[in-house]
Specification:
Elements: E1 2-7, E2 12-19, E3 23-30, H1 42-64, E4 73-79, H2 83-100, E5 104-108, H3 109-115, H4 117-120, E6 128-133, E7 138-145, E8 148-154, H5 160-170, H6 177-185, H7 210-222, H8 225-230, H9 232-258, E9 262-266, H10 273-285, E10 289-291, H11 303-314
Parallel strand pairs: 1-4, 4-5, 6-9, 9-10
Antiparallel strand pairs: 1-2, 2-3, 6-7, 7-8
Helix pairs in contact: 1-2, 3-11, 5-6, 5-7, 6-9, 9-10
Bound molecules: adenosine-5'-diphosphate and magnesium ion.
The site of adenosine-5'-diphosphate has 19 residues, from helix 5 and helix 6.
Amino acid sequence: MNIIGIESSCDETAVSIINDEQVLVSLISSQELHKEYGGVVPEFASREHMKNIDSLVAKAFDESGLTINDINGIAVTRGPGLMGALLVGLSYAKGLSFATQIPLIGVNHIEGHIIANFLNHPNLEYPFLCCLVSGGHTQIVHVKDFQNYEIMGKSIDDAAGEAFDKAARILGLGYPGGPIIDALAKSGNPKFFRFPRAQIKNRPNDFSFSGLKTSVLYLTKQEKPEWIKNNIHHICASYQEAIIDSLQKKTFKIQEEIQARRIVLAGGVAANSRLREIFQKKAAGRKVEIYFPSLAYCTDNAAMIAKTGMEMLKRNRTSSLDIKAIPNLRLID
Ligand SMILES: Nc1ncnc2c1ncn2[C@@H]1O[C@H](COP(=O)(O)OP(=O)(O)O)[C@@H](O)[C@H]1O
Ligand SMILES: [Mg+2]
């Protein structure tokens, strides 16, 4: 079975072709123009997707050595994401499916991040507990089986990725902030400054990260720019530690409660080197298996969409041509 995957939910135009054994090609066209705005400008994102999608699909076929006649399914992100951006990928996939009669499969982007783990770990078994951390989402999901999920915890405000990006903007470090803070934190002291770890009354499994960025703002207001500059590594290490502390404490608390034998990381923030280190250490101490995707499959990509589409096609869960793009699509209805 050969599946083509198309992803355009935010600021990466991505196309991938996979078969049952492997990823044949995974292409990503990143949109650098948003950097100067410190975040994604939705209208520019849609225009860039329009510019890039057709040539990226052609390049994917070139590099895979396959043609459209070899394709058994067309998987495409239908949400969550930016409406204009989603519509570019979805309309393209619908056109391709209509013209070729190849089944269309509308995929949930968040689910794609979870299933991305099977690209690197084909022997990963259900059930597992997933700590899903991206720019738009932070959820702890009990993955009982494919498309059988229970949300155990979530953020009541900012997502973990957003917390990284907003702090980086306040500190003038650039966008996206996560990888920049990760790099600077490597030579910093995570105990240098105690940033808050929010606890929400009567909601022990939920997160709140909005207060964190406020505390960075206060720090930049109370300290001289010179001091911030001289201690930026320590500030990044301490800030990152506060985010990771909340994520690991609540994930392992739930792991204990449901006696989960496997923990899986997913989403762009799962690329964070300190997060991986801390989760691996804690899991080893509890004889819990830990899995996370390779860096290329943590942040947005189309291979995760193709893989999810393949699993859906195997279960005849295809879509009709009138499916809609849903900007706030949830993992569970
Ligand atoms: N090494 C890293 N450490 C922390 N956060 C990271 C790292 N790499 C990427 N991120 C964050 O991941 C988020 C992007 O996640 P991704 O799933 O690709 O996008 P989206 O949220 O649009 O679906 C951004 O907030 C980015 O800062
Ligand atoms: Mg994503």
